[in-house]
């Protein structure tokens, strides 16, 4: 899922200060799963913002809404009436949702309430970890299902780096597994350790962010 | 700005959210209010303290309540096993959020009790009111 976290309160409050009526919008998809931008988080953040603003002597009306998906125009459209009635919108969806609202409701100011930071899996309740970096050139088939781009601190294609701790953790963070240690262990388990002796060449980053803004066209799906 | 600078209320309202097992059988009621000496108590019975979600607590404070007290079962007495533990973690989370917006976290507290009489719940509410009295009124009331 796309992972996001609330921005610091000071930053949120500073953005809302100039307005009288603000619409706080959540998204019931990825950011709900990571407990940052779903309905529950909207209904948590709204009173906090009202209280913080009131403490600073500002009476700002904050109305709330949560869309099923902020990244689909059909769902965004449902917000038209509420968006028209406010001075500004704050979205706690991922950056895609924020941009969808900004585009649909232009020139209404739309502010992000979260920082979108990773593509994660929920390992257990209250613990998420990055599993994909959307690098555009997947190597999981060569690394036994572990992603060295998202899960190695140095994104090494030919690991491990030599800094692996004796307990198999990363030298950068003792709570995180050295992913190359796991790759090597799984290669041994499968009797394929020799496959890791192949030196992987320079990675093609042109299909990631480094290749410029992504735009995909599928003629078979177009109208 | 500290809440201490704010005006002190005359009759602070403390909202008590209590697990249905937190009150004695004879006194069970879904919600009740009582003005006692030095505190106005608004009590709401919950099926389990784990049903008390973060937004509930914040909305009560936003509405101007002086403080919120959760009465959960003692550890290992919770009928849902980890319900009271969940409630405690949520209270800690809310207290941290309050701190981050400049509110005094003591406005939210948790007690672990079983089969309390209403007078005992009022006593718990009074203790919470006394703990936050130096902070003055909830800034939402001013």
Per-chain topology:
The complex is a heterodimer of chains A (223) and B (142).
Chain A: E1 2-6, H1 9-16, E2 21-27, H2 30-33, H3 39-55, E3 61-67, H4 73-77, H5 80-84, E4 88-91, H6 95-104, E5 110-112, E6 114-124, E7 127-132, H7 148-151, H8 179-189
Parallel strand pairs in A: 2-3, 2-4, 4-5
Antiparallel strand pairs in A: 1-6, 6-7
Chain B: E1 13-19, E2 31-36, E3 39-46, H1 54-62, E4 67-72, H2 83-100, E5 108-112, H3 118-132
Strand content of chain A: 15-25%
Gyration radius of chain B, to the nearest Å? Answer: 14 Å
What distance separates the N and C termini of chain A? Answer: 29 Å
Q: Please give the largest β-sheet of chain A.
A: 4 strands, parallel
CATH architectural arrangement of chain B: 3-Layer(aba) Sandwich
Task: Say what oligomer this is.
Answer: heterodimer
Strand content of chain B: 15-25%
Contiguous runs where pLDDT drops below 50 for at least 5 residues of chain A = none
């Amino acid at each position: 899922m796309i992972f996001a976290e609330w921005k610091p309160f000071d930053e949120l409050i500073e953005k809302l200060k100039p307005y009288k009526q603000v619409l706080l919008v959540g998204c019931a998809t990825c950011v709900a799963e990571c407990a940052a931008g779903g309905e529950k988080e909207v209904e948590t953040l709204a009173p906090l913002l009202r209280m913080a603003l009131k403490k600073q002597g500002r009476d700002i009306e904050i109305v709330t809404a949560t869309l099923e998906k902020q990244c689909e125009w059909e769902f965004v459209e449902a917000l038209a009436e509420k968006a028209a009635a406010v001075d500004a919108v704050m979205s706690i969806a991922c950056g895609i949702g924020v941009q969808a609202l900004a585009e649909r409701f232009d020139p209404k100011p739309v502010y992000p309430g979260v920082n979108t930071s990773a593509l994660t899996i929920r390992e257990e309740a209250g613990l998420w970890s990055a599993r994909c970096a959307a690098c555009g050139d997947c190597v999981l088939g060569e690394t036994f299902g572990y992603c060295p781009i998202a899960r190695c601190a140095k994104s090494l294609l030919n690991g491990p780096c030599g800094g692996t701790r004796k307990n198999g953790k990363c030298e950068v963070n003792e709570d995180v597994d050295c992913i190359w240690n796991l790759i090597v262990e799984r290669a041994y388990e499968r009797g394929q350790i020799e496959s890791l002796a192949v030196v992987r060449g320079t990675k093609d980053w042109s299909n990631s962010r480094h290749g410029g803004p992504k735009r995909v066209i599928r003629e078979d799906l177009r109208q | 700005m500290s809440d201490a600078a704010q005006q002190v209320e005359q009759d602070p309202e403390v909202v008590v959210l209590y697990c249905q097992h937190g009150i004695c059988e004879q006194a069970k009621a879904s919600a009740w209010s009582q003005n006692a000496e030095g505190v106005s108590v608004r009590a709401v019975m919950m099926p389990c303290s784990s049903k008390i979600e973060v937004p509930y607590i914040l909305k009560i404070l936003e509405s101007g309540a002086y403080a919120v007290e959760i009465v959960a079962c003692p550890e290992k007495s919770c009928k849902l096993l980890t319900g009271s533990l969940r409630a405690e973690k949520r209270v800690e989370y809310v207290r941290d959020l309050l701190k981050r917006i400049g509110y005094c976290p003591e406005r939210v507290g948790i007690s672990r009790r079983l089969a309390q009489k209403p007078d005992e719940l009022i006593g718990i509410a009074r203790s919470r009111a006394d703990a936050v009295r130096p902070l003055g009124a909830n800034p939402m009331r001013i």
